[in-house]
Design brief:
alpha/beta; 10 strands; 23% strand; 280 residues
């Protein structure tokens, strides 16, 4: 399925979504409708549409500075669109007050780039952070931290400091922290950046394992094509503020769009490069 300015009304025109409303597919979990966002004179999102089904794993691809992280922040309510609607579980985020938005964000678990751990805290304290803010009892916190570390295969690492961890271990601690409150939506921001090929594969397998164990919807953003094709049920490509392609991996790989093919193949020449030169 290819999306561009000519078929922007994804909610009414996407046949998959029509089927979903008729019971043919899982319900739509996250629905971004004609989202636009600018920072000063720079338009980052430009009438973007994307819908994500409950329980699926979606990967969003795009070049550096294409707005992938901005898109994730809209999903979780950290940014509000200049126009358009963000609907999660049927709730329009724009209708939520400050107190309600705090509760809303607990539906999400977000793993930031390179883990983004608190360097002055132990692994236990990092994973327990959200649980303590939620005022959970101490014995419950201890049990949940142990459970989360077991799920990411880091049993016995509670006392370690972030400086003692490898890059892959830091990612896994970040995952454990993200799942501490048992979220129904997992967001992964560049989960394999800077890792060697073997550790990338380990992290990819862990993302799928966590999604299946928790029954969560997963959204990942990445530049890594190998990871994208390993973990995605559908892949979207973000370019110039719009989703220009959105399809299952095999269909995405066969896309006739030359921009998609240049990105997949990592070619130095092509329409993406030409656009950079034209804007320079």
């Amino acid at each position: 399925m290819s999306l561009d300015a000519s078929n922007a009304d994804l909610v009414t025109r996407d046949p998959d979504l029509i089927m979903a409303t008729q019971g043919g597919l899982p319900p739509v979990k996250i629905d971004l409708q004609r989202i636009s966002k600018a920072f000063g004179e720079k338009t980052v999102l430009d009438g973007l549409d994307i819908a994500i089904y409950e329980g699926e794993s979606v990967v969003i691809l795009g070049g550096s500075g294409s707005g992938k992280s901005v898109l994730l922040k809209h999903m979780i309510g950290l940014l509000r669109p200049d126009s358009g609607r963000v609907v999660v579980d049927g709730v329009d985020i724009e209708t939520l007050g400050e107190r309600e938005i705090t509760g809303f964000r607990r539906r999400f678990g977000m793993s930031f780039q390179e883990g983004a751990l608190f360097d002055s805290m132990t692994v236990f304290e990092n994973v327990a952070f959200a649980l303590r803010r939620a005022k959970r009892p101490k014995d419950e916190i201890a049990a949940r931290v142990a459970e989360c570390l077991e799920m990411v295969h880091l049993e016995g690492a509670e006392a370690k400091m972030p400086a003692e961890l490898s890059g892959g271990m830091r990612r896994r601690v970040g995952f454990a922290r993200a799942i501490a409150l048992e979220p129904k939506i997992l967001l992964f921001d560049e989960p394999t950046t800077g890792l060697d090929p073997v550790m990338k594969a380990v992290i990819d397998e862990l993302i799928l394992e966590l999604q299946q164990k928790l029954g969560s919807t997963a959204v990942s953003i990445t530049h890594d094509m190998d990871s994208a094709f390993r973990i995605a049920e559908r892949i979207a490509m973000l370019h110039r503020g719009k989703i220009i392609a959105y399809a299952p991996p095999a269909e995405f790989r066969a896309s006739p769009d030359p921009r998609v093919q240049q990105f997949i193949q990592g070619l130095a020449t092509g329409p993406l490069t030409d656009e950079i030169v034209d804007r320079a």
